[in-house]
């Protein structure tokens, strides 16, 4: 497919020649789309999880509870703003602003549709188109780590600091896997521009030709956005509330907004990279030629984004939270090696197709033979039995603080038997009552176990 055919639907020139009022209208429309999708996602998440758990969910504010998230946002905006005494006030205020702004501007390069006519001006349904648009989104997601780390550090408290450090380690680790998963998309499309990647999927979505990349990307973005079952930075049983424990009012709402905007952005990027972008799904474009023209592609794109958001909610309502060491092990020792091997295979397939004029069928057969050979070699390697493992490592859980099985817990000091009072007078002519020095600890201090005097 030549470059002219790829760029037939969306021309980069149509993006940069817009009048100022059209650019301003695009900015307002992009911001409005993100805010509306965030409000919808919050209500939909609570309703869907409610149905999964056989309960109604929010149903008081607005028709069927649809305005509940708007009411929550207004409530957060008008609540008292508390700044901790030990906080670094400047950084404490800037951290949620950084997270929210970076999350919002990342959506600027996502194409929502082809060229359309707006009041006589032909423009693309995209705020801007960059030759390195996908790298721009990755850069924005990398900058989002700063807001979380600075929020944990500037709070002046232990638990937010631990939550910020854990979140930084998690986001950086899974961002590596996410970046490697989209490298085959660049190699196949021959461009980093989001509009050109959509144009390259005119015949076949990359979901089918690059399925391993889609699977790794789908798992990585769940960890990148700190969503369940990978919501380790906000593990309530360990870190209270994570990096935003000390935040309240509008600042907490900005972190909340940034999390859901990031969900929308990675869902839109998934639709752009693997699901054909704004093109009609399920072959509708072949049956109805006008499905990919005018404003109809916006509908197809939004349906794909909503489907991806539903998967986020589905995972949260279905899977338990992972242990942190299992989570990091899965990212570095499973997702990253799989992504590296798949990048090498895609590069080899492209080289064979271009240099040796191999057909796609021949390339797929060659890759299948290589994979079968690797599988056969792995089966020939003898697996260690349980006895061998126990002989080499008698305590396989020695790295974790597991208490011994013969642990005996001593009784509580408060449950010691009380010393009975003496009867009769003493030898020194004193009364027969105990002196404060001889009394039990709770009576000598004048306090009982409930903290009150006798």
TrEMBL record:
Pfam family, one: NADHdh
ATP-binding found in the keyword field: no
Signal peptide limits: none
Enzyme Commission number, as recorded: 7.1.1.-
Protein's cellular compartments: Cell membrane; Membrane
Entry membrane topology: Multi-pass membrane protein
InterPro entries assigned: NADH_UbQ_OxRdtase_su1/FPO, NADH_UbQ_OxRdtase_su1_CS
Residue stretches of biased makeup (Polar residues): 445-454
Entry keyword annotation includes Phosphoprotein: no
Domain of life assignment: Bacteria
Compositional bias per record (Basic and acidic residues), positions renumbered to this chain: 387-396
Catalytic reaction list: a quinone + NADH + 5 H(+)(in) = a quinol + NAD(+) + 4 H(+)(out)
Membrane-spanning intervals of the chain: 20-43, 90-113, 133-153, 174-193, 205-223, 252-275, 295-315, 327-351, 363-382
Record's keyword terms, sorted: Cell membrane, Membrane, NAD, Quinone, Translocase, Transmembrane, Transmembrane helix, Ubiquinone
PROSITE patterns membership: COMPLEX1_ND1_1, COMPLEX1_ND1_2
Subunit structure: NDH-1 is composed of 14 different subunits. Subunits NuoA, H, J, K, L, M, N constitute the membrane sector of the complex.
Role played: NDH-1 shuttles electrons from NADH, via FMN and iron-sulfur (Fe-S) centers, to quinones in the respiratory chain. The immediate electron acceptor for the enzyme in this species is believed to be ubiquinone. Couples the redox reaction to proton translocation (for every two electrons transferred, four hydrogen ions are translocated across the cytoplasmic membrane), and thus conserves the redox energy in a proton gradient. This subunit may bind ubiquinone.
NCBIfam families in UniProt: PRK06076.1-2, PRK06076.1-4
Name this protein carries in UniProt: NADH-quinone oxidoreductase subunit H
Species: Cryptosporangium minutisporangium
Gene expressing this chain: nuoH
């Amino acid at each position: 497919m030549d470059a002219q055919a790829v760029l037939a639907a969306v021309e980069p020139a149509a993006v940069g020649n817009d009048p100022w009022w059209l650019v301003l209208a695009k900015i307002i429309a992009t911001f409005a789309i993100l805010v509306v999708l965030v409000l919808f996602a919050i209500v939909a998440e609570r309703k869907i999880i409610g149905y999964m758990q056989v309960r109604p969910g929010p149903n008081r504010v607005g028709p069927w509870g649809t305005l509940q998230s708007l009411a929550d946002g207004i409530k957060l905006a008008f609540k008292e703003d508390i700044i901790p005494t030990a906080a670094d006030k400047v950084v404490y205020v800037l951290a949620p602003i950084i997270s929210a702004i970076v999350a919002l501007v990342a959506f600027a390069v996502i194409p929502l549709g082809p060229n359309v006519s707006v009041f006589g001006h032909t423009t693309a349904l995209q705020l801007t188109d960059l030759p390195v648009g996908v790298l721009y989104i990755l850069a924005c997601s990398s900058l989002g780590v700063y807001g979380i780390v600075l929020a944990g550090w500037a709070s002046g408290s232990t638990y937010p600091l631990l939550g910020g450090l854990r979140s930084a380690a998690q986001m950086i680790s899974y961002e590596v896997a996410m970046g490697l998963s989209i490298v085959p998309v660049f190699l196949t499309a021959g461009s980093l521009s989001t509009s050109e990647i959509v144009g390259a999927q005119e015949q076949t979505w990359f979901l089918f030709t690059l399925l391993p990349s889609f699977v790794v990307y789908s798992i990585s973005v769940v960890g990148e956005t700190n969503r369940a079952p990978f919501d380790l930075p906000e593990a309530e049983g360990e870190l209270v509330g994570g990096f935003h424990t000390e935040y309240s009012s509008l600042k907490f709402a900005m972190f909340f907004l940034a999390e859901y905007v990031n969900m929308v952005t990675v869902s839109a990027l998934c639709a752009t990279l693997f699901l054909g972008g704004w093109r009609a799904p399920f072959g509708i474009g072949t049956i109805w030629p006008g499905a990919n023209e005018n404003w109809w592609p916006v509908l197809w794109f939004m349906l794909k984004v909503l489907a991806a958001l539903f998967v986020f909610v589905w995972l949260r309502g279905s899977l338990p939270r992972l242990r942190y060491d299992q989570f990091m092990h899965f990212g570095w020792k499973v997702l990253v090696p799989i992504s590296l091997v798949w990048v090498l295979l895609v590069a080899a397939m492209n080289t064979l197709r271009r240099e040796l004029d191999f057909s796609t069928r021949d390339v797929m057969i060659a890759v299948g033979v290589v994979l079968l050979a690797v599988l056969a070699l792995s089966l020939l390697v003898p697996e260690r039995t349980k006895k061998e493992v126990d002989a080499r490592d008698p305590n396989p859980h020695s790295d974790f603080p597991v208490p011994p099985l013969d642990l005996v817990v001593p009784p509580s000091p408060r449950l010691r038997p009380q010393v009975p009072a003496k009867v009769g007078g003493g030898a020194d002519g004193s009364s027969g009552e105990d002196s404060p020095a001889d009394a039990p600890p709770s009576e000598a201090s004048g306090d009982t176990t409930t903290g009150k005097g006798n």
